[in-house]
Amino acid sequence: MRSVRGARLMISGGASGMGRLYAIRAVREGAAAVSLWDLDEAGLERVAAELAQLRGPRGVAQTRVHTRALDMRSSEAVEAAARETAVAIGVPDILVNNAGIVAGNAYFWETDNDAVTRATIEINTLAHCYVTREFLPDMIADRGRAKRILNVSSAASTLANPRMSMYAASKWAMTGWSDSLRLELRQAGHEHVRVTTFCPSYVKTGMFQGARGMFLTPLLEPDEAVDAAWTAMLRGQAVRFAPRPVWLARALRGLLPVPLWDVLADWMRVTRSMQQFTGRR
Description:
8 helices, 45% helix, 14% strand, seven-stranded parallel β-sheet, Rossmann fold, single chain, alpha/beta
């Protein structure tokens, strides 16, 4: 896939942060339609109004924008939203599974079962499974255009880290599911649908307010993260780490004995990166 020109996209978490930036990029590149999902209805309205003011490439019709406010933890709500979206924009050519939360700066035994444990797994992992299951059969059946699924995971899915155990767990599950799905599609002969797993370090969207950058791994600017994910998605790249040192840290974690890696992770400030985390206020 060379561009999203003429494509239909569904973007979860579209009311702010990287979701908003993916939508802006889609409109500027001439997407035919964009559906934005989020729990924040007012945020969706603001982004939709912003997108209406943007211009795409010359000679390309204005992108249709559809919004749907819902709680993606409910499979029934996702099913209903998927039916509405299919009517509004048609079968998506691109799914951007971007919605996510992070609740941190506490040890696991200090966290609340529902507010942290359950919500983190349901939103960061299960919700994306629900969404993809609703749209994927039609994406597989529609062979007239290449299809893409961009699953936004995290560098936390490759390296354990204190004070974010449930977030790491949700992203390890996300990465494992995402890459397994990629292999399943290839094995079943549906290679027009390609899955990209995006694993960034901390991104400066406010979601990780207070988190500290690690050695050789500064906090990513949102535009930089979106550009890396977008490029990898168009290419159908299996996995993309950002910034590049995340890949190096993952490789070292696999090669070194655990006690030696623990010492190195302390020195690289990996294990202290969430100590001052506050998140959005």
